[in-house]
Amino acid sequence: MTTARIHDFFATRRPASPCLVVDLDVVHDNYKAFEKALPDSRIYYAVKANPAPEILRLLATLGSSFDTASVAEIEMALEAGATPDRISFGNTIKKERDIARAHELGISLFAVDCVEEVEKVARAAPGARVFCRVLTDGEGAEWPLSRKFGCVPAMAVDVLAQAARLGLDAYGVSFHVGSQMTNLDAWDKALADARMVFEAMLEKGIQLKMVNMGGGFPTRYLKDVPSAQAYGRAIFDALRKHFGNRIPETIIEPGRGMVGNAGVIKSEVVLVSKKSDNDNVRWVYLDIGKFGGLAETMDEAIRYNIVTDRDGDASEPCVLAGPTCDSADVMYEKNPYPLPLTLTVGDEVLIEGTGAYTTTYSAVAFNGFEPLKSYVI
Fold this sequence. Notes:
It is an enzyme of class 4 (lyase). One of its GO terms (molecular function) is ornithine decarboxylase activity. Its cofactor is pyridoxal 5'-phosphate. Pathway: Amine and polyamine biosynthesis; putrescine biosynthesis via L-ornithine pathway; putrescine from L-ornithine: step 1/1. Residues 27-259 form the Orn/DAP/Arg decarboxylase 2 N-terminal domain. The protein has 377 residues and is α/β, with parallel strands linked by helices. The chain folds into two domains: 24-259, Alanine racemase (TIM Barrel, Alpha-Beta Barrel), CATH 3.20.20.10; 261-376, Lyase, Ornithine Decarboxylase, Chain A, domain 1 (Beta Barrel). Helices cover 30% and strands 24% of the residues. It contains ten helices and 18 strands. The protein has helices at residues 4-13, 24-37, 53-62, 71-79, 96-104, 115-124, 153-165, 186-203, 228-243, 256-259, and strands at residues 19-22, 41-46, 65-68, 87-89, 109-112, 129-133, 141-143, 169-174, 179-181, 210-212, 249-252, 263-273, 282-286, 305-308, 315-321, 330-340, 348-352, 373-376. Strands 1, 12, 13, 14, 15, 16, 17 and 18 form an eight-stranded mixed β-sheet that branches. The protein has an eight-stranded parallel β-sheet with strand order 4-3-2-11-10-8-6-5. β10, α9 and β11 (249-252) form a beta-alpha-beta unit. The protein is elongated, with a radius of gyration of 22 Å.
């Protein structure tokens, strides 16, 4: 939904298109919803979703911790007011010099998923806490995150055991069920795997302390999604099922679910055309595409809600594409997007639910197009 505050901003400021506007009131409400849904879990906002300083400052003030993927993101979180104990280096693929720099800045919590990464952390951040990421299948997620990150549970035991041998604090395990996860049961199997790792480590005399349950919490695009409260109940039930009355420290890492529905992109129709006289499908070209911030339309995974002033007129499916000279810059073609037949050059369109993973994906000067301009209100 485009909030009244965003509508007013567009009407009074009339910013050039394309641009993103994020409403901080929505971010505030989302944080409070997560806090209420999982009161015993620490919230580590995934900075990569949207690192706007205004968002980070608000969340830091509210008490959020931060999941970071690079030294630059660590520095952003510190600048926003977070203390080092509220920041984790959650990327499992880190240069050793970046681990050393993070350690120098006071960061003591690092993600790993293999012995080789453990060895880097042991050299560059001696004594640090590490948690090992376990693979999940991502079934039910619109943007699965399996394969590149994580290892099977049996290997996680070896990784954490090696961490302990090298003087690190084998602190816990993590997983990510997949971004835009709408299956409430997704955390159940992952927590079962986490429990297996806890038991295997205990047999080695090592008591793990934490389960990082990752992100995956969705935002609303074209379909309704469960509430934060519904996810909270399902996750707590799974924790009780697998850990009984000895529930460890838990972390969640909302990104999309924290800021996705807080943002709206204003775009403009650049061209409407067909490829032949008897072509039944229009091509609608916007002034934003995959390289300008809509990278998550790759494989048509994320389908944004698009609002126009001509909604209510007769509509038909069209191919929706971006403005660049790259044939990959097509958002929806396999599953064409219904838009009004009266839509024409110069018309404004609003792309809702775009507060997450848009500005951070916006390419720098590809074809000379500027990175996506962002306003936070």
